[in-house]
Amino acid sequence: MRARQADVAREAGVSPRTVSNVINGYPHIRPETVARVQAAIEKLNYIPNRAARNLRTGKIGIIGLAVPELNLPYFADLATKITTAAEARGFTILIDITEGKAERERLIAGGLRPHAIDGLILSPLRLRAREVEEASDGTPLVLLGEWSEPSGNHAYVGIDNIAAAGVATQHLIELGRQRIAAIGTVLGREGGTASQRYEGYRQAMTAAGLPVRQESVRKFDRIQGALAMERLLEDESPPDAVFCFNDLVAVGALAVLRQHGLTVPDDVALIGWDDIPEVAYSWPPISSIRVDADQIAANSVELIIDQLAGIRPDELHRTVGYSLIARESTVGAKAAAEA
Which of 98, 128, 196, 271 is least enclosed, having the fewest CB within 10 Å? Predict the structure, then answer.
């Protein structure tokens, strides 16, 4: 027999109203109470009566998620984590793909889609925060990405790209590399994550008194990484280290280095960004900047639910953490094994 809300309340040792409050994402509920209710829901396989909840709250229980593409491992993983975080709060995620096109980002931000949503989590590549605001139809909104100046009017979750890129570059500098190139600024796209990663790289190189050398790509993929690496190797003084703004770019660059008979990291050290599973199984394994995607997901969903509850969070703009994962492609096999 299908479990009822009263059954969940009895299992969790709380009142039915508390169960309802947890399902509807109301704030000011003790974390341990939320955990007990969620555990009871999972144990009893309780499915809330969404139709009744919609009539009562005026909400349909769906949050939209718009990302540039899902064939990039980072966005696929992030979408999974956001879906999990939303389900834990009683919401379903509806995913849309923008393909990084300004008109599609504007269309989605404006609500001109054939479906209704309670809120929108948007990762724009083309539109600035101000442009998203101008297009928005007033639906609760969270912006993902690393704008240089996050909007004061909409919630935002991201990381400090400049600082993280500086950490990646400094890692190579401290290993004694002198000719460090960067691959990843995107042709035809100003601002956004790639530009900020380049700025972090440039600042670290300038502070160390080293020359800056960068190669642009048309998109973040293996082919573009390979082509950029080929161009770098044609230089009279090819790099002894490369910082790639994306792991797929790093995988493409690594393939070219091996094709040219170069040893990584002895001849050329290599570091990427995102720490996708593929880089841990490359040969050699590729060092990378790991972004805390779990925190991006949790904060994004929380900020949407706060807006739905009429709450303006103390921190409307949230910056999550990152870490440098050093593997053989920069530190060598011995150091990586000892780490």
Answer: 128
Domain for residue 28, yes or no? Answer: yes
In DSSP notation, 137-183 reads -S--EEEES--SS--SSSEEEE--HHHHHHHHHHHHHHTT--SEEEE
User: Terminus-to-terminus CA distance in the chain, angstroms?
Assistant: 53
For residue 13, the 8-state DSSP code is T
Residue linked to tokens 């973040």: 220
Using DSSP's 3-state secondary structure scheme, residue 24 falls into coil
pLDDT band of residue 59 (cuts 50, 70, 90) is low
Contacts of 40 (CB under 8 A, 6+ apart): 8, 9, 11, 12, 19, 46
Residue 314 within any structural domain of the chain:
no
Q: What torsion, rounded to 10 degrees, do the Cα atoms 40, 43, 49, 50 define?
A: 90
| Residues 243 and 212 both lie in one domain | yes
Instruction: Return d(Cα 190, Cα 216) in angstroms, integer.
Output: 12
**Is the CB of residue 287 less than 8 Å from the CB of residue 331?**
yes
**Length of the chain, in residues:** 339
DSSP state of 260: T
Name the nearest CA neighbour of 48 among 15, 76, 16.
Answer: 16
Are residues 73 and 278 in contact, defined by beta-carbon separation less than 8 angstroms? yes
Predicted TM-score (pTM) above 0.85: no
Q: What is the DSSP letter of 133?
A: H
Q: Do 122 and 186 lie in a common domain?
A: no
